[in-house]
Every structure is written in structure tokens, then in C-alpha cells.
Amino acid sequence: MSNAIEIKNLVVSFPTPAGYSAVVRGINLTISPGDRIAIVGESGSGKTMMGLSMLGIQPTSAQVEGEILIGDVNMVSAPDAVARRLRGNYISMVFQEPLTSLNPVRTISSQLSESVRRHNSISKKEAEERVLEVLTAVGIPAPKERMKSYPHQLSGGLRQRVMIALALINNPQLVVADEPTTALDATIQAQILDLLRSGMGDAALMLITHDLAVAADVCNRIAVMYAGNIVEQGPVAEILSNPKHPYTRGLLSAIPKFDQARPALNPIPGSPPTITEVVSGCRFASRCAYADAQCTASEPEFINNVACFHPVTGAIK
Amino acid sequence: MSSAKKLLSAVDLSVTFKVPSGSLRAVDTVSFYVSAGETVAIVGESGSGKTTLALSLMRAYAPTSGNLFFEDQEITNLSEKALKDFRKKVQMVFQDPYSSLDPRMTVSQVIAEPLRAHFKLSAKERDEKAGESLKAVGLSPDFLNRRASQFSGGQRQRIAIARALALDPKVLVADEPVSALDVSTQAQIVNLLQSIQEERNISYILVSHDLRLVYHLATRVVVMYLGKVVEEGACDDVVANPQHPYTAALLSAVPALDEASRRERIVLNGAPPSPIARPTGCSFHPRCPIARPECSTQTPELQTMPNGRKVACFYPGELQPHISFTSSK
Question: What is the largest CA-CA distance in chain B?
Fold first, then answer.
């Protein structure tokens, strides 16, 4: 199989009093095996809905259109049984808050072996061996003892390692991790970022985050989302040193840095459009310093890795 | 030591909570001060006691031991009635503007509530003051009759700041004031806090886990681990040359935009221990990359170094993180 996943013109919409409103507005994205791509966006950008629909676990009220191709299976239209076979086996997910994603009344071992045995016809003992193997691989100290623990007996960092172990246990091709370190403390975040960067084996990683620095820390490619669209995509170094979309540039100059001169931050004025807001043309235009009549008249297409009529060049001042 | 006069200060402050298994010393013999117009940041991880320290500086918690002073007056044991003036002068901005503002109240009610508690004003005067406060945070006084629920996160945080400013405070305690906001609006609030400080010479006590933000805003920084101050000093100095290995690790843990910081990252083992089961000796020794045998038996005191830096470590300055400073000038 050449791609881990291929997304074509993905649209995710929700019913509102004014009819269906799209939170994901026609996304195209290809992830190759072993790739580590970050989806960076603010709240409401649609990044989480995109991730959930890739596994077919979006809220039931959501309407999903387009194609999410895993091999020759389209997750959007696949029967439940087929989607279930791929989920946890071919594609898996790590959530932000491990305490709410793990079952509080079952041991770590029982939750992880369930996932192994669901997808493989092996004995309980073999499954437990696999659990031990993967807990060791994600850096859990004294894994044999930890297998018998319940989630509440572990620290936040260890729980997130268990979540990652659960995602990796069936050797998936792709792991989607949604803000996996946002609930963690600084020194624990550093541990988990290390694991995501270099401990995922052969699995490709799609990291959903609001933090460009976290994205740069873990991934080799970044896609920036704004109000339902990918507005820019490229290798990490390229995005950081030479961002073309005014929104990406805005994000980069809005974060404080270790700069002795402490220059005033450059905020992006205003806020993103709400889901029901009707916007003509580029959805970033009202906040963009480069916008002109063309930008409010029509929506720019995604060409040469950027969706902008006036892509900017050169380093950020 | 700075010659500026201490505005709000604590001497050997401890705050202990009763828990089923005994007592939890959330803040352990901490001395702290903030002078007029400066920003002091309190940094540390969850459980470090940074929020408890900030709240007890406001007398939101009664200190178990130690002394609190505000403008040369001891306020440690003052009655709530005698504290009324202090309450006016020390205000707070919370992390999450979705839970710190009552969604059913109008903006005018939100901002007028503290005014009502502290001043005898007519409704018209209160509205005028509330309008001025809104203008000070960059919002139109036309918003006074709308409800808090109609605003975005950034606008709500502005309203929360307007409420705090309405009483013309001398100290503003800001507990993670931007971490619930989106990146693009965080910068708006950061700049706003800076311009308010320039205009009014307010002191800020900034509680934050974001060291880039701390570096950007603070003049001094206090690093806490398990209820104790482990390092304190001028912000420039602490970031450029951390003396405590925990400070070094925290700085090194900041997600980096550059390759080198990532390659040379100091990654600590494990998680901070529970303050109920405090390790013997130096509390940090089980996670410390440079710990020696004596670190588990003897407790390092917070020592003042010649340049005014304070550090509680037997081997100060030994562990250094790689930080890529940028320079815009």
C-alpha cells in the first residue's frame, strides 16, 4: 500500500438552525507510511473533527462527505463491520485526557489485551505477552507490576503512555493523537513528546495540536488549518522559516520567544468566524493585513501548498 | 536586592491543608515580595503550590504560619472587615473566562458588582465607571448591556480584566491568564496586560507554566517545587543562567522551534512526588540528573548568592539547558 491514508475533499457538517454548517470544508491530505504530520489550528478550526472522522468516530449528528481512503476502503461509506476491523488495528487514536479515555474499573492489562484479542485470534497468555512488550516499548517502568494497576493508580504521564501503548498494540499504520500533551505538566510533556517523536515504531503519526512549537518538536511536516480548511502545508523547517500564508505568519509572530529585546507581540486582530457565519471569499480575509477586493470576492484554492491569493515570501521580521 | 519598596510581601509563609492521611503542606516557608509596577512570575508544575501561594498572598487562604504585609501594614490576621481596603487594591484575573464570568449577567452587572461592594455610587456613576473600565481594555462601552455569554474567549478575558481594573487596584494576580485562549488571541491579552501596567504602574503576580510567556512579561521569577521556592531571581538572569537543576529542566522542556534545543533536551525521569509523601533530603533528588548521595539525606536551604539570586541546591549552576535566544534588535 503506497499511502497510510488519503483524504479527498472531506466535508464534515453539523445541523444548525440555519441548516447544515461545515466545520471541515473540503480537505485533501495524504499521509505516507512513517510520516509524522502535525495538524495545527485554533479551537473551532475543524482539526479534531477531521481526526475523529478519519476513524469514523465522529458525533452521530455529524454528516461526513468525501473520501477517507485506507487502501481500497473508504471510511466514509464503509459498513460498520469493516470500519471496526480497521479501527484499533490499522488506524488508532490517542486522546487528550487519558483518565476519561481509559476504563476506570478495568486493569491496564485487561484493557490492552482486549484490543489485541479483538483483532487477532491468540490466547490470553500470548495477548498478555504482547501487552508487556508494548508497555516496555513505551517506557513504562516496572511494566509487569503496572499491568495489574487500574488507571487511577497511575500518574498523568504514565496514563498517557498507556494510551499510546493501546494505540500501538496492534502495530497500526497510522496513529492520530489529539492534543496528547495538553493536559500534562511541562517536564512530563517533554517525556511524551520524545516518545511521539521517536517511539512510534513504523506507524505514521498525525498530531493534532494548537501549539506550533509542539508540532515542530515532534513532526516533520505541518499542515495549518483555519476555519475548516488547510491553508498551508509543508516541511517543518519551511513552515517555520518561510511561511507563505498570512495566518501562519501571524501565528508565528504571536507567540512569545526567548528574545532579549522583548519586542511587543503581534496579535492577529479579531477572532475566527463562527460555524454559522456566512463568509464570502477567503475566511481569513477580515483578519488579514494583505487582503484586497479579490480576497473577499472569491475563495483561494490550495495551490503550491498554500491557499492564498497573496502568498508572502521571506523570513518573518 | 532591588531597592524598590515592597508593596505586597510574605515572610516564611506556610499553608497547610488537612487531608484524610494527615496534613498537606502546599506552601512551605516561602518568602515573597512584589514591588510597585513590577511583574513577578511564579512558575512550577501542578502540585508545586504556585496557585496556593498566589491565593494566600491575596488572603484567600488563611496562612498556617508566617506573616503577610501590604503597604507596611501586617495583614496576616486582619479581620475580613479590616481587609476591605486590601481587597480593593489586590484583584485577580482567572485562567478560564468561560467559568469566571456569570453568563447570565450583563457586562455592566459583571463590572459593577465589585464597585457596588466597595463604593456608594449611583447606578449612573457605576455605569460610567464600568464604561471607562471597558474602554481601558479596548472594548466599546456599547457592550455594557450585552451578556457575557455573547462574547468570544478573548473578549471575555478583557471583560474579566475590566472587572479587576474597575477598583483601580495596585496588584493584579493573574493565574494562567492566557492559557485558555487561542494562540492568536493570547497575544492580544498579553499586549493589553503590558500596556495597562505601563499606564497605571500596577504590580502583577503572574502564575504560569509557560516559560516563554514568563520571560516576555516578568521582571523577576520564583520557581517552586513541591511547595518550596527552589530558585528566585531576575527573569533575564534565571533564564540565561539557571542555577537549580529543576529550573534548567523546566527551561529545557519548553517545546522548541529549533533543532538544537530538542537534541540537547534534559528529560527528567518520573513525575513530581506527592506533597504528602515528600522525599527525604532535597525534594527534587529522585528526579535530579545531578543528584549525589547527600542530596537524599540533607536538605539544601534557599541561599542568597552575591548577585541577589536565590537557589536551594548543593550544586548550583551545574546543569545547563540549551536555549536558543533570538534577537530582534
Answer: 68
